[in-house]
């Protein structure tokens, strides 16, 4: 039986009065593209930091490819690449120097062939000799990805890697990360862009107040929480509540629909109630809706 | 691609050396110039009026003190400034994420500090030589105290760099602890010229023993026995090394 890429058991962490992790259990299989979602302060970054050894948990165990991150930290860290959330860099060095140094930290010498390959994949070859201070924000973000990959880790954690990144770069970055995933790397992604998570992740965990409040495949989450919804602008929106709808702003009301077949009976009920429809649109289920429902329900 | 158990440590050491070497004008050149100015001014004012240990000219007496003072201050500056900059800019994570042990971390930062201290010390010595006839009575002592002094201040720099959350706190550590202890350690005078009380006070300053032992290597004379100085300096180093390693092992202020 293959070991999971990541196994987290009963993880707890408290900062003063704040319970950042309140007993998290999580397992990510090798080769998965896994999403870790949650509002600010949910515990995502604490969880990732504890996994990567940047934070010491109060309790629980963290394993990467079967290696405990405390007792066998050398093997655990060799198997993990982390792209941090903040745009951090060492202003003393060029891109190539940084990547060589980062390789060295992981015990790897003469790594230039792989460094060249990463630079080419991330469209950074022309900037290899440039000092980090001279690069744009997007370029710096790509260098962070390159730094996480220099030691060819099987597990890669990306902590909000597209925050503040333009659309073109975001697309390029996801193309590259998808390729890494196809090549067998396990990817764990935290992001506030829920459409990204929906498109990319095969499985998703949602965190709230340091607990996992939802964990399933993306498909199941979408199916379980909301498949479709009808949004209508009504002459008398207050009538929507009696018919199972939720009144939103501007005279609009939302009616959840499990199947398209439920649409006609709903319209008939509205007609029978004498409620005049001014505008109508169909909404597909999306992760944002699921996210809101999970967070409100948890 | 070659894997090697010591590569991580060697790389961190190389990075720390490269970091100060890349700005050598500021990290080596400037302190050498400072020491040279001290030498020119003090020797101009005092050389004809003061002799030390009976027959040693003041300028000759001053040079080993300036060399050691520069060595100590720059060893401290190296590890402390590197760590606080990394912490404040956030790039410390690139050292914390890899599989480096806390002992490798300590050794790399302290050795890089010693190297910077030695570079600066040698620079001060070289630019001083045209102005002074300096004997070298026991080079082994010079080397031993240079090395130990650099390691002590390198360790103090690691402690200060980890403890300080902002540059202001680090400057406080440097200006209110390191600087007074260095200036009052006998760099510019022999403690034999002090009143009895201040001689006794000097004996509780470990920096005095570093400089006095270092000076013994040049003149074969010192205020106290070099063996006593070596013992004090050795105990200080062991104490600070244990303290720093304990902080790093706990992840104090580095791994929250």
TrEMBL record, chain A:
Pfam family, one: ABC_tran
KW Nucleotide-binding (keyword) present: yes
Record-level Gene Ontology MF annotations: ATP binding
Keywords of this entry: ATP-binding, Cell membrane, Membrane, Nucleotide-binding, Transport
InterPro entries named in the record: AAA+_ATPase, ABC_transporter-like_ATP-bd, ABC_transporter-like_CS, ABC_transporter_ATP-binding, P-loop_NTPase
Residues spanning the membrane: none
ABC transporter domain mapped to chain residues: 6-234
Record-linked Gene3D superfamilies: P-loop containing nucleotide triphosphate hydrolases (3.40.50.300)
PANTHER family assigned to the protein according to its UniProt record, in alphabetical order: ABC TRANSPORTER ATP-BINDING PROTEIN
Protein name, UniProt field: ATP-binding cassette domain-containing protein
Species annotation: Aromatoleum toluvorans
Lineage: Bacteria, Pseudomonadati, Pseudomonadota, Betaproteobacteria, Rhodocyclales
From TrEMBL, chain B:
Annotated InterPro entries: ABC-2_transport_permease (IPR052522), ABC2_TM (IPR013525), ABC2_TM_bact-type (IPR047817), ABC_2_transport (IPR000412)
Keywords: Cell membrane, Membrane, Transmembrane, Transmembrane helix, Transport
PROSITE patterns hit by this protein: ABC_TM2 (PS51012)
Chief place where the protein resides: membrane
Membrane topology of this protein: Multi-pass membrane protein
Pfam families on file: ABC2_membrane
Membrane-spanning parts: 20-40, 52-72, 106-129, 141-164, 170-191, 227-249
Record flagged with keyword Transmembrane helix: yes
Localization (cell): Cell inner membrane; Membrane
Keyword Ribosomal protein: no
ABC transmembrane type-2 domain span: 22-251
Source taxon at top rank: Bacteria
Similarity comment: Belongs to the ABC-2 integral membrane protein family.
Protein name (Swiss-Prot/TrEMBL): Transport permease protein
The organism of origin for this protein: Aromatoleum toluvorans
Lineage: Bacteria, Pseudomonadati, Pseudomonadota, Betaproteobacteria, Rhodocyclales
């Amino acid at each position: 039986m293959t070991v999971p890429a990541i196994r987290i058991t009963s993880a707890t962490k408290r900062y003063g009065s704040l319970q950042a992790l309140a007993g998290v259990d999580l397992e990510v299989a090798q080769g998965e593209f896994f999403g870790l979602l949650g509002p600010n302060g949910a515990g995502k970054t604490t969880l990732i930091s504890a996994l990567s050894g940047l934070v010491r948990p109060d309790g629980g165990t963290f394993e990467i490819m079967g290696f405990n991150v405390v007792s066998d930290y050398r093997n655990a860290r060799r198997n993990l690449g982390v792209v941090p959330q903040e745009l951090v860099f060492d202003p003393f060095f060029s891109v190539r120097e940084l990547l060589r140094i980062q390789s060295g930290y992981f015990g790897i010498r003469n790594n230039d062939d792989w460094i060249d390959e990463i630079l080419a994949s991330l469209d950074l070859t022309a900037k290899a000799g440039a000092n980090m201070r001279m690069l744009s924000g997007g370029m710096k973000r790509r260098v962070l990805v390159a730094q996480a990959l220099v030691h060819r880790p099987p597990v890669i954690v990306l902590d909000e890697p597209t925050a503040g990144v333009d659309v073109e770069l975001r697309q390029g970055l996801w193309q590259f990360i998808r390729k890494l995933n196809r090549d067998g790397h396990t990817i764990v992604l935290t992001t506030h862009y829920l459409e990204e998570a929906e498109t990319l992740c095969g499985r998703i965990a949602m965190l709230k107040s340091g607990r996992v409040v939802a964990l399933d495949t993306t498909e199941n989450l979408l199916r379980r929480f909301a498949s479709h919804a009808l949004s209508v602008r009504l002459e008398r929106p207050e009538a929507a509540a009696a018919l199972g709808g939720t009144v939103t702003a501007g005279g609009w009301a939302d009616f959840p629909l499990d199947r398209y077949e439920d649409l006609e009976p709903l319209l008939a009920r509205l007609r029978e109630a004498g409620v005049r429809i001014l505008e109508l649109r169909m909404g597909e289920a999306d992760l944002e809706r699921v996210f809101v429902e999970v967070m409100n329900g948890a | 691609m070659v894997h090697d158990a010591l590569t991580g440590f060697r790389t961190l050491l190389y990075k720390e050396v490269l970091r100060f070497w890349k700005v050598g004008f500021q990290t080596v050149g400037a302190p050498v110039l400072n020491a040279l100015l001290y030498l020119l001014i003090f020797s101009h004012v005092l050389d004809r009026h003061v002799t030390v240990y009976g027959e040693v000219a003041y300028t000759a007496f001053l040079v080993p003190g300036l060399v050691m003072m520069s060595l100590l201050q720059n060893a401290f500056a190296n590890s402390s400034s590197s760590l606080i900059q990394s912490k404040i800019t956030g790039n410390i994570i690139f050292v914390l994420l890899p599989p480096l042990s806390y002992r490798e971390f300590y050794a790399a930062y302290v050795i890089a500090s010693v190297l910077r201290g030695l570079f600066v010390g040698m620079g001060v010595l070289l630019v001083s030589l045209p102005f002074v006839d300096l004997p070298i009575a026991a080079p082994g002592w010079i080397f031993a105290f240079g090395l130990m002094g650099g390691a002590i201040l390198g360790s103090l720099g690691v402690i200060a760099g980890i403890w300080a959350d902002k540059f202001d706190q680090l400057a406080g550590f440097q200006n209110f602890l390191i600087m007074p202890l260095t200036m009052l350690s006998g760099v510019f005078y022999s403690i034999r010229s002090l009143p009895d009380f201040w001689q006794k006070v000097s004996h509780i300053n470990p920096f005095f023993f570093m400089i006095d032992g270092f000076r013994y290597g040049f003149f074969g004379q010192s205020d106290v026995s070099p063996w006593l100085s070596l013992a004090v300096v050795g105990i200080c180093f062991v104490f600070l090394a244990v303290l720093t390693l304990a902080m790093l092992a706990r992840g104090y202020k580095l791994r929250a």
